[in-house]
Amino acid sequence: MLNIFVDADACPVKEEIYRVAGRFGLRVTLVANSWMRTPNEKRIALKLVGNGLDAADDWIVEHVQPQDIVITADIPLASRCLKESAKILSPTGKPFTEDNIGMTVATRDLLSELRESGEVTGGPPPLTKRDRSRFLHQLDEIIQTICREQPQHST
Predict the structure, then answer these.
(1) How far is Cα 12 from Cα 83, in angstroms, rounded to an integer?
(2) CA dihedral defined by 129, 132, 138, 139, rounded to 10 degrees?
(3) Checking CA distances to 85, which of 61, 66, 72, 107 falls within 20 to 30 Å?
(4) Could you tell me which of 82, 53, 64, 71 has the C-alpha nearest to residue 16?
(5) How far is residue 66's CA from residue 84's CA, in Å, rounded to a whole number?
(6) In the 8-state DSSP scheme, what is residue 1?
(7) Distance between CA atoms of 143 and 111, rounded to whole angstroms?
């Protein structure tokens, strides 16, 4: 069964994930360094990992399967999960793919250098309604695509 893994500590679209996953009856695993409130539903789990630098990322990579979905804004995690044949979506609705991850990593590295030199300050802009809408649309599209690609089992 398809799973959705969420890099949950700073994820701003958890409610949207619960809603879409519920519509399709999918399991959601939130992976976090600290406890957070989650809906009291069997298909939604919270996995607490240690406080190590990449503890949540490492746990997700170890457990993700081909065709699972990972929700993260973490570009190195996205790159690692793509190598596991997972589908990756950022909270702004941007899918990370084999075609765009190289440029995304390069842009991230450039911005990191510019921040270190003081030429760029601040982080990403706040999530907008348009971002949330794009996220919902993309998550729905990814799930439908995976469902079409998976062989149907007869009962």
Answers:
(1) 25
(2) -160
(3) 107
(4) 71
(5) 6
(6) -
(7) 32
